[in-house]
User: Fold this.
Amino acid sequence: MHGGVMFKGVLVGIAIMVVYIFIPVVHFTWPISPFISGYVGISFVKNRNDSASLRGLKFGGWIGLIAFVLSVMVGLFLIAIFDIGSNKVPLVWICVALVTLYSGSMSALGAMYAGLKNEKAESRKMDTI
Assistant:
């Protein structure tokens, strides 16, 4: 499964996470948004040649990469705009690393869960036929 095949699903996943940040009603549920983005976003990936676990890991990797780029940009913005002392700059980069790891791993888990659930449903259909 190539990156281009996952592109639509990853965009949907990132959009879900951004919406959860900016809409006040669901703002408090942002910590679960990477899982939801993986769960929903992987359904837009049509190529299902890999196992659910491998698809989930690839999806989580792409989400993690995009989260890394976005959080680095936010970190640089915060350092440039606000008067952050040199002793607090490492804290910004620790937060960048944590956001990246959390987003990637939770979206991978959501994608794996959706994939395993889908495979189980398909096997039940095959058993009834």
Summary: Residues 89-128 form the longest helix (40 residues). The chain has one domain: 3-128.
